[in-house]
Amino acid sequence: MNLEFSDDQKFVQKAARDYLAEHSKLEVCRKVLESGQAYAPELWKGVAELGWLGTAIPEQYGGAGLGYLELVLIAQELGRALAPIPFASSVYLCAEAILQAGSEEQKKKYLPRLASGELIGTFALAEGAGDFNPSDTTVTFDGKAVTGAKFPVPDGGAAGIAVVVAKEGAGVSLVIVNLDGAGVLRANLAAFDPSRPQAKLEFKGAAGDRLGAAGQGAKIATAVLDRAAVLIGYEQIGGAERALDATRTYTMSRFAFGRPIASFQALKHRMADVFCKVQIAISNGYWAAWALSNGNSELAVAAASTRVSASDAFTLASEELIQMHGGVGYTWEYDCHLFYRRARALAAAIGTPSEWRDALVSRVDAA
Amino acid sequence: MNLEFSDDQKFVQKAARDYLAEHSKLEVCRKVLESGQAYAPELWKGVAELGWLGTAIPEQYGGAGLGYLELVLIAQELGRALAPIPFASSVYLCAEAILQAGSEEQKKKYLPRLASGELIGTFALAEGAGDFNPSDTTVTFDGKAVTGAKFPVPDGGAAGIAVVVAKEGAGVSLVIVNLDGAGVLRANLAAFDPSRPQAKLEFKGAAGDRLGAAGQGAKIATAVLDRAAVLIGYEQIGGAERALDATRTYTMSRFAFGRPIASFQALKHRMADVFCKVQIAISNGYWAAWALSNGNSELAVAAASTRVSASDAFTLASEELIQMHGGVGYTWEYDCHLFYRRARALAAAIGTPSEWRDALVSRVDAA
Amino acid sequence: MNFDDTPQEAEFRAKARAFLDQHLKRLDPNAPGGDEFERETKDDIARAKAWQAKKFDAGWAVLTWPKEFGGQGLGRLENVIFNQEEAKYHTPPPIYGIGHGMLGPTIMAHGTQAQKDRFVKEMARGQVIWCQLFSEPAAGSDLAGLRTSAVRDGNDWVINGQKIWSTGAHYCDWGMIVTRHDPNVPKHDGLTYFIIDMHAPGVECRQIKQINGGSGFNEVFFTNARVPDSQRVGGIGEGWKVSITTLMNERVSIGAGQGAGRVKDLFRLAKKVKRGGKPAIQDSAVRQKLADFYITSKGLQYTGYRTLSAISRGATPGPEGSIGKAVGAPLSQQMASFASELQGAAGGLLDANAAPDASWMEGYLASPGIRIAGGTDEVLRNIIAERVLGLPAEWRADKGIAFRDVPTGTAKK
Amino acid sequence: MNFDDTPQEAEFRAKARAFLDQHLKRLDPNAPGGDEFERETKDDIARAKAWQAKKFDAGWAVLTWPKEFGGQGLGRLENVIFNQEEAKYHTPPPIYGIGHGMLGPTIMAHGTQAQKDRFVKEMARGQVIWCQLFSEPAAGSDLAGLRTSAVRDGNDWVINGQKIWSTGAHYCDWGMIVTRHDPNVPKHDGLTYFIIDMHAPGVECRQIKQINGGSGFNEVFFTNARVPDSQRVGGIGEGWKVSITTLMNERVSIGAGQGAGRVKDLFRLAKKVKRGGKPAIQDSAVRQKLADFYITSKGLQYTGYRTLSAISRGATPGPEGSIGKAVGAPLSQQMASFASELQGAAGGLLDANAAPDASWMEGYLASPGIRIAGGTDEVLRNIIAERVLGLPAEWRADKGIAFRDVPTGTAKK
Q1: Is A267 in the C-facing interface, judged by CB distances under 8 Å?
Q2: Most distant pair of Cα atoms in chain C: their distance
Q3: Tell me, what's the ipTM?
Q4: DSSP three-state, residue A357
Q5: Within its chain, how far is the Cα of D223 from the centroid?
Q6: pLDDT 10s digits, B161-185
């Protein structure tokens, strides 16, 4: 048993943290949030040049051929920096789907461009409100064309391709759609976290290229979402760690009644509770990262555990971040709300924690 | 609008509190708990002589002909005193069932003896574990005799009669059974709170006297349980108030690090949270007591609200009572566990809070 | 014990409704409420003033105030009944809460006869609007730590410093401000309270943008702003005592204000969205949450009524009023969070056209402010612990020493 | 990163299992575990000693201790592997945790060579049993507030006072005690640490009955009990430093100990009992709870393993170990409470014949002790806040003053 990342992996993380500390300051996130930009292009270009987009993509498809233990640590740093780029949509979801289910030809066609960042991909799953089961999809694929609407789709405005969950005959298939092609209407939606934009995609007979076997879509989607749950979980962990750190720093410097407010026991105990929640998430994350990196069957349970604990940790940490800042924490000017927005956005992505809890019980019970 | 009890009602409460402070000290509860007695006979005799058992029973049936606003306040004091007597089983459940559904003859036959305390009654609903829906009963009534087992039955060892929920043909009926008669086997069960004993009743063709119309049992039982939920809720409120008060008193006198531990903010905030929970329960209790006393249709929702909030308040208050006492709170010698036991026992009675939450949503939705 | 109106109350309610029917349009009871942004346009303010004048002239304004001050000398109960009814109609944004709920009563309690005559009745009719100038960047929960200075100069006082979180200051005509006239005595002893003209030279408002995009609060800067001594409320050094009156009234209005919240809307949402293929309201986990929210909300509502009922029988409003906000504020965040999650992926949107009910996500953005403004969760728990339960006060590093010597940590920064 | 055994670890695990198979009966993996009462009969103790001797003689005792002290000089990892395997068998009650986990390491760290030679190896074989004598009625969370006095008399020290919460003291042969040799200096400076013979005159044990009926703890009274100075551990006045060593080891053992808890049993129960006519595990609300319990338990288990993994690579056990108990102790109460409610009316019983799984109600009675013993929830949160997050320490009313002058409130009582 060895529950530590290797020195090489820690080096990758350190490098990522240093790079983002310089090139993804919170002003960068705020600029996207306030300007309505789709993402921060310089930062996207930067991480692409560093090869982060292809971290887990094999070299023959233009990737770095590193592994998921490296990718999760990069994800943790992107989360810590609240990086305003379509990394999750393009790498954890779209590229992973193609890696998992793509034909050799599809891999050759898409992965190099996704790895280089010239192409941005996303994953079109949800269809409006409530929980969503792929087999409930009302979007159809007739073998050639896709028809129907998907929303919200993360980075649906910026993406060049989307992997779409659609009905094909009686079953469900995944279909790659070129979003710049004919028969695709896009509309940006007002997002809770404008630094991670959402869009509505309407397909009116848009040309589609099936990904994986017909009728296997639900199965593949589940596998892809499990993998994304781990990677997004690490982004949430990074965000939660930073939110707690910012809470700590502020409460130590803010004085009331002649004392730093961090010396008030009620706040101390609540910060301790946040710390514990973050540690629980990290430990589940280690488990899931290991299972992801070596294809262990425990991934199904570990991914759900990570998804839930990381969502809870980031949500609590961001709520306490504002609360312990008091009035200024509620101002647009301070950065607290950037964390609060990101926490909600990530908790709403790829299925809510409640859905994952429910799934976890079935998976544990089946194991 | 007037959300206050009348001076007369407050006088009844004050008298009850004073009497119990003298005759139902915690030693009385402890004695029953440690001795395996069914209840404290002197105390039972005393409250009977004071007419409490008949508080809400009309005078023509030997009651005091007061109302439910008086009865809830007596219940609150019995709860505060952790009185070790079968008051709830005999008064809130058995007598209420007969009042609600009994024939004139049955009322004449049973109510005076229940009011005088010479007869102890109970209500036999549960059949083992899990939640319980009257229509799931496996106990049968053929119009004359009752067959099957009920457990746990509160005060099933001490009671002279039980109102039994049983299948009659396709429907469910309530049946009064003389527990001292032939065909009744009783076995005491080890209770979480031995000051409120539980028993298993086995009926082997025991003679039964139907209460209310055949097939109306489920409907009547629901009405009886709603009323009992309010009255037991007031016992829980009384217990919670005292638990908080004892926590307050102890933490003010216990010193650590040169300060009373009540001056540590983490404990202060948690005691404030307990106080708020108790107040929420009290406010719901007022609502339910009013609805109960004037037969208002809001009783269905108000009773469920009281049942849940009072259970939660007493549970939290009793857990914090032990926790804030530290080590001594975990000793048999200290009285903390008497509250902890009673809180669990009352929460497990007449349906769990979870069941009542579920019922509340249906009722609100229907309203 | 009676949760229904007495005949007199019912009659009063009917009269109120009759008046409101004449002038306002009823709300659709089935339309979700939603948390409003604090964005009062000039036009909103004008409409609010017009409506207040109508109420005043018809005898429906500041009902609890004495007749001499333009009120009706009615009890808090009648006031609540009127508010309950008014809440069923489309009205301009409420901009008089602070003036009528807190500042007016403070002047009535501590002001000179001249101040009462000059200001209170005018305030009642609402053609001039008042704001509160208490909090400062370095004095929030620790209000008495405020630094805005007042220096005597002849018959005037010269005010310098900065206030923050002043609701509506940017459209207000008058403000009530607590200042420090003497930093050389312990902090509570060096405070003095004034009425200040918001249009006076040296008074500058800057709206604060909130995380939800609203900007109901202001920073207010004072640069040699002059206030005549005749506008001093209470004695020199009595500023803390006077402020307490203001804050106690705040607690009462808030305490009564919170409550049932938006539970109805939440049930409505749970019927609209699906969980596991069925309407979410049929999902057992959702039902457990709905029940808890309902029960807590009802409990808060009736806790407020209990206080009210006691007050209407002559009891003085006590610290119990804090329960409403102590529980209600976090509850509003928990409900908004739950309702957002109920909407699944759409819970990550603020888009009314794409989400079943985006007002919940707006509410999730607004709720942190509710937990902070007008007394943080922490302050309210301290009040309940110390003033209701009588637990020992927190140790004080600033006790009995001159304000100027109180540690501020600025050295550390 | 590897959650599986390395080949060496797997081999070690196999060897351990082979040894255990020879001597013990395997537990039925599907039988619910249940919280055991602390009721060690004379017979239990005898069996425990016999088993410990067997382990010692076969080289499976105190694996992490150096060979010279009867250990095997193995790492914590091997130790955990052995414990994991041993936990799968029927064993006598564990009575060596304190001696082997805390006291032995303390002697090894601070004892004289003579003390090490005399006591440590003997302790390893477990034919004599050791207890810890730290807490006092007026010194629980505030351990350094202890009052039991030690007065020098020739080559002896004379001990007077009372200790409490001493696990197993009634069947122990030796104890390690912290005393106050000087009340005239600040409280941490006046403490001295000794090894004491529990059979010596003037030492009297009285078992404490717990709320769950168990009585594993004792009050221990000292009346002019004499201890030779040769049994002093560490210097005069170094008692606090030595105690910290003991307590740090406690934290590590507990930290690793907590974790996965009884989640499996909870799933089992949820299949057995019904909710709404179906097995409770199919109920959405039940599933949400099961998931949270599972996730927190797994998170704690792996948090313990992370610490372990770091230690096995040479890191020194830090305050992070507190997470296991800070989260695990309340979790055990929440799980027991939930499992009791799952059993409906039967959740009000302690009757194994009438309830589907009465061990949960037993557990609900035991769990308050878990939240208190060996560091309360509050102490652990303070440790995390101050020692992990580096937040400022609580203000201290007892700082820098002679112990005898520290306020005790006894006047108030």
Answers
A1: yes
A2: 76
A3: 0.96
A4: helix
A5: 27
A6: 999 999 999 999 999 999 999 999 9
